[in-house]
């Protein structure tokens, strides 16, 4: 049974989400501010967190920042605001997805399942590696069995979505992917207003794999078309 932590200062929302997730077979832990959430993380192995942005004490943004210092566990941000700036802020500080209040509980459940599928596929559920699927592009190397990324021998820590985007591009080095193609491939849903979501994750990847993200060596933008990994050498499996 997978453990999901729901953190919101509104106890009615926590209870409502808990009912739906429990009905889907998940084990739900409850917290009502960021401090509670971090304490639970120290004691419990969590598979996903749902965090409200606006909470007293330690809000969802600062809680996410604290979690990302040590863990790549999927995080879904809940926000009462619908402005793009708030969504981008959540993604900027390491959240994997966001949903705006008021929300359809069935949509939230679907997003939870989607994030857990990606997390499991990344091997973060202690799956056993059976071989070496290694993709390299110059000094950039991805081992898709161990889910490790390194640049010039230095390990790079990516979130599940960042990893999947980078893997897609590296496996197809030289090919330009549009924003909609990236979104559809990674999120497995229709790309509607995907520009900001994809752009934020691309920027994070650049900051982690490039020496100078303003003059990228690997992850290039093709203006008006999309993004690609610049071929540095043979990409192999």
TrEMBL record:
InterPro entries: CheY-like_superfamily (IPR011006), OmpR/PhoB-type_DNA-bd (IPR001867), Sig_transdc_resp-reg_C-effctor (IPR016032), Sig_transdc_resp-reg_receiver (IPR001789), WalR-like (IPR039420), WH-like_DNA-bd_sf (IPR036388). Pfam families: Response_reg, Trans_reg_C. Residues 132-231 bind DNA. Residues 3-116 form the Response regulatory domain. The keyword Phosphoprotein applies. GO terms for cellular component: cytosol; protein-DNA complex. The modification 4-aspartylphosphate is found at residue 52. GO terms for molecular function: phosphorelay response regulator activity; transcription cis-regulatory region binding. Gene3D superfamilies: 3.40.50.2300, 6.10.250.690, Winged helix-like DNA-binding domain superfamily/Winged helix DNA-binding domain. CDD domains: trans_reg_C. GO terms for biological process: regulation of DNA-templated transcription. It comes from the Bacteria. Residues 132-231 form the OmpR/PhoB-type domain. Keywords: DNA-binding, Phosphoprotein, Transcription, Transcription regulation, Two-component regulatory system. May play the central regulatory role in sporulation. It may be an element of the effector pathway responsible for the activation of sporulation genes in response to nutritional stress. Spo0A may act in concert with spo0H (a sigma factor) to control the expression of some genes that are critical to the sporulation process. This is Stage 0 sporulation protein A homolog. It comes from Oribacterium parvum.
């Amino acid at each position: 049974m997978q453990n999901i932590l729901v953190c919101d200062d509104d106890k009615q929302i926590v209870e409502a989400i808990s009912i739906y997730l429990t009905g889907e077979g998940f084990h739900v832990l409850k917290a009502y501010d960021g401090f509670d959430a971090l304490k639970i993380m120290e004691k419990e192995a969590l598979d996903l967190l749902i965090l409200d942005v606006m909470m007293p004490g330690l809000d969802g943004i600062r809680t996410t920042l604290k979690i990302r210092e040590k863990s790549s566990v999927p995080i879904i941000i809940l926000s009462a605001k619908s402005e793009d700036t708030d969504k981008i802020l959540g993604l900027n500080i390491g959240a994997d997805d966001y949903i705006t209040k008021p929300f359809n509980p069935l949509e939230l459940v679907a997003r939870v399942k989607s994030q857990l599928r990606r997390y499991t596929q990344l091997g973060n559920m202690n799956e056993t590696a059976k071989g070496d699927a290694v993709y390299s592009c110059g000094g950039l190397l991805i081992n898709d069995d161990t889910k490790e990324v390194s640049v010039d021998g230095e390990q790079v820590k990516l979130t599940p979505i960042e990893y999947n985007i980078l893997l897609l591009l590296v496996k197809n080095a030289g090919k330009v992917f549009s924003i909609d193609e990236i979104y559809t491939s990674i999120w497995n849903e229709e790309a509607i207003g995907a520009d900001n979501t994809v752009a934020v994750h691309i920027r994070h990847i650049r900051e982690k794999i490039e020496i100078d993200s303003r003059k990228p060596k690997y992850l290039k933008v093709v203006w008006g078309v999309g993004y690609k990994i610049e071929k540095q050498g043979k990409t192999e499996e």
